[in-house]
């Protein structure tokens, strides 16, 4: 894995972790509303302010887990890229790929949980 790609992936993990952590903390506090630019989006979540807050409150733990996964991938990629020697690049590729897949997967699962809770709150 080339050095610029490692740096780009590290930046991605840092930004993704920060966004997910911010959203998790705000969701836990019930402070995510329809006007929040970094909120989860779906038809059920967009139906009302109460549905949006209820959905995000249901998904906060998954958002926190996504942030922590990004942190661990960040640390692992940093260690692999700079301290593993000749085996580092191949391990860094695996960490980068699994990190991106996990970020997408956990965000989709969090959105599904939020969507389900928002639908339940509108019934």
Helix content: over 70%
Q: By helix and strand content, what is the structural category? A: mainly alpha
**Which overall shape is indicated by the principal axes computed on the Cα atoms?**
elongated
How many domains?
Answer: 1
Terminal Cα separation, in Å?
50 Å
Radius of gyration: 17 Å
Mean pLDDT, to the nearest integer, reads 90
Organism: Schaalia cardiffensis F0333
Keywords: Membrane, Sugar transport, Transmembrane, Transmembrane helix, Transport
Transmembrane segments: 58-82, 94-114
Protein name: Sugar transporter
Tell me the layout of helices and strands.
Blueprint: H1 3-28, H2 49-83, H3 88-121
Short description:
Helix content is 77%, strand content 0%. The chain is an all-alpha fold.
Folded structure, characterized:
The chain crosses the membrane at residues 58-82, 94-114. This is Sugar transporter. The chain is an all-alpha fold and 123 residues long. The protein has one domain (3-33, 41-121). Helices cover 77% and strands 0% of the residues. The chain is built from three helices and no strands. It has helices at 3-28, 49-83, 88-121. Helix 1 runs antiparallel to helix 2 (49-83), helix 1 (3-28) packs parallel to helix 3 (88-121) and helix 2 (49-83) runs antiparallel to helix 3.
Key features of this structure:
mainly alpha, 0% strand, 123 residues
């Amino acid at each position: 894995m080339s050095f610029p790609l490692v740096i780009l992936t590290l930046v991605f993990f840092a930004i993704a972790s920060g966004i997910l952590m911010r959203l998790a903390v705000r969701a836990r506090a019930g402070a995510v509303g329809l006007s929040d630019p970094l909120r989860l989006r779906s038809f059920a979540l967009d139906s009302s302010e109460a549905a949006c807050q209820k959905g995000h409150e249901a998904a906060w733990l998954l958002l926190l887990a996504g942030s922590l996964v990004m942190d661990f991938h960040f640390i692992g990629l940093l260690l692999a890229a700079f301290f593993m020697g000749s085996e580092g690049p191949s391990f860094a590729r695996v960490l980068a790929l699994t990190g991106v897949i996990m970020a997408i997967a956990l965000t989709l699962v969090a959105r599904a949980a939020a969507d389900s809770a928002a639908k339940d709150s509108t019934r």
